[in-house]
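Q: I'm teaching a short session on how sequence maps to structure, and I want students to see two examples side by side rather than one. Could you give me a first protein with its sequence written out and its structure tokens following it? Keep the formatting plain so it prints cleanly on a handout.
A: Of course. Example one:
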Amino acid sequence: TDLTGSKKCWITQNLGADRQALSATDDSEASAGWYWQFNRKQGYKHDGTTRTPNSNWITSIYEYIDWLPANDPCALLLGSGWRLPAGTEWETADDTGGWDNYNETFTSILKLNASGLLLSSNGSLVNRGSYGLYWSISQYGPDNGRNLGVGSGYSGMGVSNKASGRSVRCLRD
């Protein structure tokens, strides 16, 4: 698709998901996929009760770097050529798609849904079915990364604590 101004191949489900979301507010584990902390290789799934793996959760990430290619879950799980989108690519996709809410992101070619997030404080799952946040490779200072957020009344770029768990979509040039 050319949502970013040039032809790119995007996956149409969240990385780690068993299937494409069934609706904008699909709150199932099968559609949510895994969640990643910024610039970390480890992904986490959450069944609504338990985070897996349920290892020690990093509650603070403070580093002046974008997501490193060696840690990119898209390349690690899908292979060479796959990567996380840059912040500007998410911005352009949001603008090109004319998205104003999760119904519009879901009916787009990308099928973006409200996959929720894992809290930076303890890795607990919140807001699955209410809103979704999708990491970009771009940092916004030492403790925040840039992400696309989608909800019932909005779609747009924002920033999130790097220690929070966010969904991932991958693309290939």
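Q: Perfect. Now a second example for contrast.
A: Example two:
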Amino acid sequence: NMSNEKRKEIIEAYFHPKHGLGYSLGRTHMNSCDFTLGTYSCDDVAGDVELKYFNIERDKRYLIPFIKEALLVSRRPLRIVVSPWSPPAWMKTNNRMNNGGRLREEYRAAWALFYVRFIQAYEAEGIPIWGLTVQNEPEAAQTWESCLYSAEEERDFVRDYLGPSLQRAGLHGKKIIVWDHNRDRLYERARAILADKEAAAYVWGLGFHWYNGECFENVARTHRDFPDKYLLFTEGCLEGGVQLGRWDRGEWYGHQIIGDLTNWANGWIDWNLVLDQTGGPNHAGNLCDAPVIANPLTDTVFFQSSFYYIGHF
């Protein structure tokens, strides 16, 4: 809803290597999340285990063009991580993408194939996919898109389905990232999954968020006990809607990034690149703040202090 001039300004501010921050990492969602315009999956045809009806047509409207513009502006490789918030409703125990539920055992192979098809579809569009997380926040049954995995369920899915499926498709170079949830349980999940050597062989590293306490010691502890695995901060945003001009927004980012990088984190990914003046769009009403706020009513862009703090790093 912004003018082409403002769109270009935002994308260059983030991705241009000289005139912007030169981002080299990014994260996008597979299927819908709370910040999409509605709930959907790339295959809503119940029982389609062969994924004959799989498609990314919806992503081609807004998301893929945005990523392509970012790739063009960045002038260097952009490592993109794909994360699902939920499998299609028909694959889940609660028959809904929202409100938690679990992946049905009989659809584990089809869900593993789903990642393969998604990566292949995006790469056919000229968007290289660098890595993937197994599940966004696997211990949170949110009112929006969510799916629960115990440590054992995530371990077994990676070992028996996702890892082998990627290998068969010639995608074994894609980085598999487990956990993708808060730091407070990071070490516990690492120990449960990586104790299984077969599962650990497929795992590149662990992702984590900031929503349940700092717990930086868990990042260091995980590195200490599993030094061959990488640690990636995969999501963080400030909740409760937009608060323009507050300096503590940036200070919070600075504190968090320093805490992670000094405890062996290998990279750091913010969550929403751009939100509107309300802190959305968000179909679940989960309004948040972002380093860049775009107001389509006035066609103006506001750069929060968090944008400049990130710029220093």
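Q: What should students look for in example two?
A: Point them to this: The first strand starts at residue 25 and ends at 30. Also worth mentioning: Residues 1 and 68 are 18 Å apart (CA to CA).
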